[in-house]
Amino acid sequence: MVGGSSGEMDAGPELCKRPIRVRAKRRWALSEILPQEGDEAGRPGLERREIRKETDRLARLAGEGAAAFSKREDEVSRKRLRWWEANRERLAGQDAERLPVLDRAYRIFYIEYLGLDPEEVPIVERSDRKLVIRSYNFCPVHHACADLGLDTRHVCKAVYERPVNDLLGRIHPGLRFRRNYRAIRPHAPYCEEIIELV
Asked: What is the pTM of this model?
């Protein structure tokens, strides 16, 4: 076992009722996130566009309130389930079907759906019933939250956690996804995510 997920926080209903403002000083200034004009070493254009799009979306959601976050959560879930239906047969013909269920979930969600390199999302703890993953990948939600002063713990719980569970439930009904909300960017250098077989 490498690493651990001690100190996990239950992000109960109180975390989802309203956006929580980050009280601590931001770790990254906006100028560090978005390159300045003529900045050759800056983020690729696609990443800049994704950050801008997510910033606009989250600003609108924050202005509209909790119901808007819930509506966005439903949209994200539908998008993931549409992807599953469109790719289910292709995935069934791949090696992923022969993997143990936790590894299959990891492969389908992180590698196939998100298109990430395994080095960006290493498995740091493994058992027969649980994988702990640390996500270091580019994330427009993280950058948009930093720009807007929103807490990623609220946004990720309110909008992006259930859609992962909805997708994983199609892979196997016993799969569950959650985040360690004490180890999520910018409060940690990675986002710690857990896939369990219950």
From this structure: 0.77
